[in-house]
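Quick log. Single chain, no ligands specified.
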Amino acid sequence: MAKIKFGAIVTDIRGSIDSVTYSRSRYGAYARKKVTPVNPNTNRQSDVRAMFGAASSAFRSLGKSTIDAWNAVAPEYQRSNIFGDNLPLSGATLFTKLKTQLINIGVTTNPAAVNPVTIPDVVWDGVVADVSTGTIVLINLPATSAGQKIAVYASPPVSPGKSFFPKSSMRLIGAKDVSGAAGDFDITGNYEDVFGDVLLTAFVGQKIRVACKYVNLENGQAGPMANSDTLIQA
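-> predicted structure:
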């Protein structure tokens, strides 16, 4: 379904109508033929659906006073549509979104209905993937507070000229508790659990992207994603 923003006539249009998809790039608006991908129903998709279902079920099991608290706090949270306009959230939608975020990083307790907080970017010095050492290392990852974790996402190896990474290409590979001192963190095992062994000569020169964001453990709210690209080196 296409989303249309009206001005004097039409100021923007996103989505699909019949066989045409409308979008916008840095060069302006464009239209292209709609391509309908086959749903492979992968294990990852099944896991996401299961997490979402568990979160929805958890909300329905909350007492009335707790549900009322979620409905009251929901308007304080911001969500934008494709045009950047703010969209209000229901208490059920907000709870499910935040609960799913927590389940995703291994936290099973229900989030509290609290006002949103400001969560900064993760400021770090990038990532190094090195075949000679057999490691993929996050450089100078900052320390977190006791109520935070850093969720780490990564892409599979791609050609070095690629600069656009769709959301679907970034997979959660782990959540780091950095409550001690800042420092370098080896994520080789986390990466290989998802993508297999890429620290091989055949992959030298290919690019991987790693992204980090803070997750507040009290309410499940996540901060902005901070990306870093690296070429696999010999």
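DSSP finds four helices and eleven strands in the chain.
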